[in-house]
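Morning run. Coffee first, then this:
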Amino acid sequence: MKTQTKESVAPSMQIVCFNVGKEEYGIEILKVQEILKLPEVTPLPKSAEYILGVIDLRGKVIPIIDLGVRFGISEKSAQNKRAIVVDIKRKRIGLAIDQVSHVVKLEQKDIEPPPPIVKGISGRFIIGIGKVENKFVIILDIDRIFSADELTNL
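And here it is:
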């Protein structure tokens, strides 16, 4: 008879760190498809406030989400932005950010569980808070940032 073991936790993870406003966030590198300078965005009428519009990425139409607006920490703007292209539940989406800062490898011991609310972002959107040198990186769980209904409408 097999004994059940706890779900294995990776001893470390690589995080792509980026800025939205004055805050530093991170996404696990395995979730990132590519990072690009945000090309011209075509606005979508009657879309949610946080949707900047769509771009053509090598023949594919990709919706662009302004993370600052989604998190309620900045105004909608496509000027001087970068985009991190990710796959969320089999849907390719661009996340508009201010800048990518670096990639860092974090050990599990350096990641604290999320507090209930971090800068207005619900704790359920966050994997944890990573300690990088003498500052913190909010590690996002991109699979939970958008509801199934929101993804259907993108």
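The helical segments are 67-70, 148-152. Good start to the day.
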